[in-house]
């Protein structure tokens, strides 16, 4: 058995720190010193020029450039984003023509509908699950399913149909509805549903054929938007770990298959944890040509207002 002795370090080679290439430098990367009375621009510019702060700057730059070039900026979002009370922030981006299309999952549509109707949403699941009451609010299940069935006679999809109904039925809190805001601005708003994942599927009025057809219409509409992302568009995935990254990848594949040039665009994933699918199917794979992909990690209720203020400040 070989016996080992402590290594003698006296012969190691060294060099001067002044000859080393350093990645972090005073005056180039460090944050500015905080002080009261700063404008938002001064505050944003004072963030360190490193890592997440530079990623956020990159996303802001891409969005501003996309709007100057008339290219789409798509917001793809999960339900937790609207449960954070960010509707006024997102609506401001829609009203300012920053966001030109919105793609959501079924939970976003439900929370949006409930907020517009009663000014509140997000029940306490743990408190009502054992009693068998979770997801059985009459107005939500009966109302949304009825709207979708009526919408089958029109050419709209899931998102536009619900948004239009919120306006036409004059919901008391409709000014807080993202779906209604999109309908009012006449921009695409799509809802992508997995059957069985949403509370309105639990109700006797639910019709799988209707839900599937209305969501499929939205998938086809979103594919048209994705086909226009090339040469400067932006896709923002916010708080969707599985469904919307997969929808995006399939829509992109169809667009490429049909001969559209979808390259040279920017993607970003905003989430509290960076998951496999958004990283792979949003940030990395779609931008392997001439595109750029960014990750912004942290709470939506902090990072989305920061992002929105930075974009609106840049656009004046």
Structure description:
The longest helix is centred in the N-terminal third of the chain and has 19 residues. This protein has 13 helices and six strands. 47% of the residues lie in helices and 10% in strands. With 316 residues, the protein is α/β, with parallel strands linked by helices.
Short account of what is shown:
This protein is an alpha/beta fold. It is 47% helix and 10% strand.
* Strand order across the largest sheet: 3-2-1-4-5-6
Rg to the nearest angstrom?
23 Å
Broad shape: globular
What structural category arises from helix and sheet content? alpha/beta
What is the overall pLDDT average? 91
Number of strands: 6
Q: Strand-residue fraction?
A: 5-15%
N to C succession of SSEs? HHEHHEHHHHHEHEHEHEH
**Helix tally?**
13
Indicate the low-confidence ranges by residue numbers. none
Topology:
Blueprint: H1 40-45, H2 51-69, E1 73-77, H3 79-83, H4 87-95, E2 101-105, H5 106-118, H6 125-128, H7 138-151, H8 158-168, H9 178-185, E3 189-192, H10 208-226, E4 234-238, H11 243-257, E5 266-271, H12 276-284, E6 292-297, H13 300-315
Parallel strand pairs: 1-2, 1-4, 2-3, 4-5, 5-6
Helix pairs in contact: 2-13, 4-9, 4-13, 5-8, 7-8, 8-9, 10-11, 11-12
Descriptive terms for the model:
globular, six-stranded parallel β-sheet, alpha/beta, 47% helix, 10% strand, 316 residues
């Amino acid at each position: 058995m070989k016996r080992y002795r402590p290594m003698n370090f006296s012969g190691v080679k060294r060099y001067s720190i002044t000859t080393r290439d350093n990645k972090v430098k005073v005056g180039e990367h460090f944050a500015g010193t905080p002080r009261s009375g700063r404008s938002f621009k001064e505050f944003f510019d004072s963030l360190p020029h490193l890592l997440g702060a530079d990623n956020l700057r990159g996303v802001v730059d891409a969005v501003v450039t996309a709007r100057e070039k008339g290219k789409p900026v798509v917001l793809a979002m999960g339900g937790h984003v609207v449960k954070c009370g960010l509707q006024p922030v997102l609506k401001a981006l829609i009203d300012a023509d920053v966001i030109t299309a919105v793609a959501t999952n079924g939970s976003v549509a439900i929370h949006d509908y409930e907020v517009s109707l009663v000014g509140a949403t997000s029940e306490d699941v743990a408190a009502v699950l054992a009693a068998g009451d979770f997801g059985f609010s009459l107005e939500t299940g009966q109302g949304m399913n009825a709207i979708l069935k009526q919408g089958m006679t029109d050419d709209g999809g899931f998102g536009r149909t619900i948004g239009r109904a919120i306006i036409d039925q004059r919901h008391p809190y409709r000014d807080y509805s993202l779906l209604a805001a999109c309908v009012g601005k006449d921009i695409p708003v799509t809802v992508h549903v997995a059957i069985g994942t949403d509370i309105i599927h639990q109700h006797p009025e639910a019709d799988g054929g209707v839900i599937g057809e209305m969501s499929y219409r939205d998938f086809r509409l979103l594919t048209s938007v994705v086909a226009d992302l090339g040469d400067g568009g932006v896709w923002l995935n916010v708080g969707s770990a599985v469904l919307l990254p997969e929808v995006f990848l399939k829509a992109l594949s169809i667009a490429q298959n049909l001969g559209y040039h979808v390259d040279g665009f920017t993607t970003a994933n905003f989430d509290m944890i960076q998951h496999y699918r958004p990283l792979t199917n949003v940030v990395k794979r779609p931008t392997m040509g001439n595109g750029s992909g960014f990750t912004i990690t942290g709470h939506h209720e902090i990072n989305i207002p920061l992002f929105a203020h930075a974009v609106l400040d840049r656009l004046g």
